[in-house]
Amino acid sequence: MQTIIVHLNGDYLPVGEARVSVNDRGFLFADAVYEAIPAYMGRCFLRERHLARLARGLETLRIEADVAPLADVGDELIARNDLVSAEFSVFYMQVTRGAAPRTHAFPREAVAPTVYAFAKALVRTTPERWERGFGAITLPDQRWARADIKTTGLLPNVLAQQAAVEADVEDAIFIREGMVQEGTHNNVFAVLGGEVTTAPATNHILHGVTRAFTLELCAGLGIPARERAFTVDELRDAEEIFFTGTTTEVRPTVELDGRPVGSGRPGEVTRALSEAYRRAVAPEGTVDASRTD
Q1: Phi then psi dihedrals of residue 223, to 5 deg
Q2: Distance CA 207, CA 187 (A)
Q3: Apex CA 151: angle with CA 199 and CA 83, to 5°?
């Protein structure tokens, strides 16, 4: 079995040799942010957008760390883990405030942030599985009010995703005061009256990179699209529902809370957007390739 190589604080080493202090604030408080970038045939997609979001999260949490070197770290990890020819992989990075004696306030003395990263292959959804569609449930949103920060504090997401697993579906959708927000690890869209609709980019959802790119695809394809608040009742009456995300790509939901969505099969709008996304990430893709590196 190939040894997995990770990056930790400037060093490349086997994953079994990586060590983080028990006093690390990421471990003690989830005082950390993370980012994940998809890669296709070893090429990171929309990398600069992902790094910019990581930088915004660090700035919001007042963690001083330079994200620019992480671009090269991703390329190096992809190469060292033999992922250059992998159809689909992910580059994950996480930055914590660093190790310091446990106290809720920031350390009085400056400490170095902890920077950890890895890359691994992913199994892409096959066309046959995609055609069958996926299921989802709705759940009350019990997260904190800054879901726009991509923090590692994901316990409500973990519990919601476990509820989806126990319901034998793939996704859970957070509902806050009757309004649709997002999934546990992806953004959700609905086709309502022929219009692609997704929740506005407030503090209650993550401002997904794939979400924004999908809205751009809508514009390029001439598909009406709008960011607006919409209710769970509207979601249940939607013609189509789909999720977008780094590892999700564009994925159809054909069952919600045990009831079929629309015809109970992937819809034409979802299909068109998924095909456009796959063209964009393919080696021969031509959709603004300058943004992919």
Answers
A1: -90, 120
A2: 8
A3: 95
Q: What is the pTM of this model?
A: 0.93
- pLDDT tens track for 198-244: 999 999 999 999 999 999 999 999 999 999 999 999 999 999 999 99
* Lookup result for tokens 């079995």: 1
Question: Of 25, 42, 53, which Cα lies nearest the Cα of 283?
Answer: 42
For the chain, give the longest Cα–Cα distance: 60
Map the chain to HEC letters: CCCCEEEECCEEEEHHHCCCCCCEHHHHHCCEEEEEEEEECCEECCHHHHHHHHHHHHHHHCCCCCCCCHHHHHHHHHHHCCCCCCCCEEEEEEEECCECCCCCCCCCCCCCCEEEEEEEECCCCCHHHHHHCEEEEEEECCCCCCCCCCECCCHHHHHHHHHHHHCCCCEEEEEECCEEEEECCCEEEEEECCEEEECCCCCCCCCCHHHHHHHHHHHHHCCCEEECCCEHHHHHCCCEEEEEECCCEEEEEEEECCEECCCCCCCHHHHHHHHHHHHHHCCCCCCCHHHHC
Per the CB < 8 A criterion, the answer to whether 252 and 242 are in contact is yes
Q: Do β-strands 11-14 and 32-40 pair in parallel, antiparallel, or remain unpaired?
A: unpaired
Determine whether 150 is an active site residue.
yes
Summarize pLDDT for 237-280 with one digit per residue, the tens.
999 999 999 999 999 999 999 999 999 999 999 999 999 999 99
Q: Which of 150, 176, 204, 211 is catalytic?
A: 150
Tokens representing 274 are: 């998924």
